């Protein structure tokens, strides 16, 4: 919920900013990876993004931002057409995706190590077991008088 008084104050503040020629969107919360979006809005449309709070917000901040942005978004759509903010966000996300560097392929030595190294380690363990453990178990059987399963 939010403060109704702050909501009406936000609407009045937005109308004042529009009369002064300023287009601003108030925002709060976790704002991560919006650099291209903010840049396009500022450079192409002279729309500023104003961060009014982080993740912890009070009812007054939310109320003001809701009222302010209702008036401001209506003015932005009147000037630039419906859905401008969404179109710019999609454009910024597409641009960011196009500029994202692909993950480099695994080095050949790592692949070779996995293909050869793992089976080699398993085989080496078996050899060590045969050389160290198996003779001990065979000797213990002989001492107990049990016959070997192998023909003499």
Give a verbal description of the structure:
With about 150 residues, this protein is mainly alpha-helical. It folds into two domains: about 5-100, no CATH class; about 105-150, no CATH class. It is about 65% helix and about 10% strand. Helix 1 (about 5-20) packs parallel to helix 3 and helix 2 crosses helix 4. The longest helix is centred in the C-terminal third of the chain and has 37 residues, at about 110-145. It is elongated, with a radius of gyration of 35 Å.
Largest sheet, order of strands side by side? 1-2
Number of individual domains: 2
Low-confidence stretches: none
Shape: elongated
Helix content: 55-70%
Q: What Rg do the Cα atoms give?
A: 35 Å
Question: Structural class of the secondary structure composition?
Answer: mainly alpha
């Amino acid at each position: 919920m939010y403060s109704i008084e702050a909501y009406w104050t936000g609407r009045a503040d937005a109308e004042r900013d529009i009369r002064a020629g300023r287009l601003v969107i108030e925002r709060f919360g976790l704002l991560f990876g919006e650099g291209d979006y903010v840049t396009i809005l500022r450079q192409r449309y002279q729309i500023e993004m104003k961060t009014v709070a982080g993740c912890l917000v009070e009812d007054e901040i939310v109320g003001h931002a809701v009222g302010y942005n209702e008036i401001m978004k209506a003015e932005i759509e009147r000037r630039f057409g419906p859905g401008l903010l969404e179109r710019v966000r999609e454009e910024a996300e597409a641009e960011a995706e196009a500029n994202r560097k692909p993950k480099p392929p695994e080095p050949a030595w790592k692949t070779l190590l996995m293909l050869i190294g793992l089976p080699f380690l398993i085989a080496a363990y078996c050899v060590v077991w045969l050389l160290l453990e198996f003779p001990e178990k065979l000797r213990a059987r002989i001492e107990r008088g049990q016959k070997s399963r192998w023909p003499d």
